[in-house]
Amino acid sequence: MSKEFAIPVAFSEELGVVSIEEARAAYLAQSNPDKRYSFVCADESCRIKISAVNCYNEVFETTPHFRKFPNTEHSAGCIYGVYSDVYGNMLENKAKVRPRLYLISILIYSYKLSF
User: Fold this and answer.
1) Reported confidence tier of residue 2, pLDDT bands at 50, 70, 90
2) How many Å from the N-terminal Cα to the C-terminal Cα in the chain?
3) Which phi and psi (to 5°) does residue 39 adopt?
4) pLDDT (tens digit per residue) in 61-77
5) What does the alpha-carbon distance between residue 65 and residue 53 come to, in Å, rounded to a whole number?
6) CA dihedral in degrees (51, 27, 105, 73; nearest 10)?
7) Pick from 93, 13, 3, 90: nearest CA to 47
8) What are the sequence ranges of the domains in the chain?
């Protein structure tokens, strides 16, 4: 089984498809930031529930990010599930992934925005 990874974007009924930075900015921009958003996978064929880690904390030890809940899996053919497998395999093989991961994230985000 491959390692978990941060999902680059998620979908919310209130916000649409957003990055964690956009979700965090929307939350903090509220006059009374107490309404939390619900997120699901941005792939329309998947829509598993997604966690917004540290999105609502003013101070945090780990960088805010999206990730799937434990014991859930992306649907077959979900682009983020495929991304997870590729990324996890790269980590397991100890490949240098930072530049590739950044490029993959940009390509996926750009692809999703084009529809």
Assistant:
1) very low
2) 31
3) -125, 145
4) 888 989 888 888 888 88
5) 5
6) 20
7) 13
8) 10-113
29 vs 45: CA distance, rounded Å: 31
Edge-first strand order for the sheet with 10-12 is 16-18, 10-12, 39-41, 49-53, 65-68
d(CA 37, CA 22): 12
| The token pair that represents 37 in the structure block | 């958003």
Share of the chain above pLDDT 90, in %: 28
Report d(CA 8, CA 43) in Å as an integer. 12
How many Cβ atoms from other residues are within 10 Å of residue 115's Cβ? Answer: 6
The token pair at 99 is: 């530049």
Q: Which two tokens stand for residue 111?
A: 């692809």
Q: Report d(CA 55, CA 87) in Å as an integer.
A: 23
CB 37 within 8 A of CB 12: yes
